[in-house]
Design a protein that fits this description.
Layout lengths: L2 H14 L5 H18 L9 H13 L4 H20 L26 H15 L4 H16 L3 H5 L6 E2 L4 E5 L5 E5 L2 H19 L20 H16 L7 H13 L4 H8 L4 H4 L1 H17 L4
Antiparallel strand pairs: 1-2, 2-3
Helix pairs in contact: 1-2, 2-3, 2-4, 3-4, 5-6, 6-8, 6-10, 10-13
Length: 300
């Protein structure tokens, strides 16, 4: 079987059987297409460990980041593991393929004071009753208050929000559903938007929408628009040129741990499949604690 045909079957398996997110499937497709350029017309069983090492070496030569190399190596291992399980190949050439170590970079996190200043300003702007200001305030409070992903936020319908219980039902990665709590400020902001802001935006639509967040024309509010909003209001507070909604998720997780939350509880709130993914925030909290110590202790 030729390599390209096998990768097409594998991509379909990821989407239909494993039900990975569209973004993850696109990443696999991109990585395997890149590998296909190295493999050329080789039959699947003719691909060797040296073929894969040559592929990664070429990526290194053109300046690909270590994180990209690690992702591509993982994609190759996943593909050949599947091909071996389905008996498309007699052996798995990726078993000894070493993943380049990824450099650890700590996420950008806003301080407690910065978040208080930002959200207070958004609340004051929303008090005038402008539907856009009400919506934007609700977006920021939910991103920070619930720590959800931007894709999860934009995918919310009105019925997913339970203001009485202070919870929101989200569909996370791998189509896994979870219920996430949020606090009183987020509940108040979302409630004000639902009663005073959303009806005005919904009236501009050509047809009714179940979406929680609506744009100026009444359609579902998209991730790019949320990125633009967060970059505008959060960037100046943390001194970052490029910042997106994930910074609010990072901030929510770090502040939960700073406040004494259990690591596994934070893992459930964030919807992380692995506890190791959540542990990055313990490093952030430790660095913040160290910085505070050095500023405050006379013997630091």
């Amino acid at each position: 079987m030729q390599f390209q045909a096998a990768t097409d079957d594998f991509i379909e398996h990821l989407a239909r059987v494993r039900r990975l997110s569209p973004a993850t499937v696109r990443a696999y497709r991109s990585d395997l297409r890149d590998l296909a350029e190295t493999v050329g017309a080789l039959e699947l069983d003719a691909v060797t460990l040296e073929t894969l090492r040559d592929w990664l070496w070429r990526a290194t030569q053109r300046g690909d980041a270590r994180s990209t190399l690690a992702r591509r190596a993982a994609a190759a291992r996943s593909f050949f593991s599947w091909a071996h399980e389905t008996q498309l190949v007699s052996h798995d050439p990726s078993l000894r393929l070493v993943t380049p170590k990824r450099g650890r970079t700590l996420p950008v996190v806003a301080s407690h004071d910065a978040m208080t200043t930002l959200l207070d300003a958004q609340r004051l702007a929303a008090e005038g009753g402008d539907p856009i200001a009400l919506r934007d305030h609700a977006i920021l409070e939910l991103l920070y208050g619930a720590g959800i992903r931007v894709s999860e936020l934009c995918g919310l319908d009105v019925d997913d929000l339970d203001l009485d219980r202070g919870t929101v039902r989200v569909l996370g990665k791998g189509s896994k559903e979870r219920v996430v709590p949020f606090g009183i400020p987020a509940r108040d902001a979302a409630g004000a938007y639902l009663t005073r802001g959303r009806p005005s935006l919904a009236g501009r639509a050509e047809r009714p929408s179940s979406a929680l967040l609506l744009g100026t024309r009444g359609g579902r509010f998209g991730p790019r628009a949320v990125y633009a909003l967060v970059a505008e209001v959060l960037g100046p507070h943390i001194g970052a040129d490029t910042v997106g909604p994930h910074a609010l998720r990072h901030t929510a997780a770090t502040h939960l741990l700073d406040g004494g939350a259990d690591l596994r509880a934070v893992q459930e709130i964030l919807g992380h499949a692995s506890l190791g993914t959540t542990q990055i925030y313990t490093h952030v909290s430790a660095e913040r604690l160290t910085a505070t110590y050095r500023l405050a202790h006379p013997r630091a």
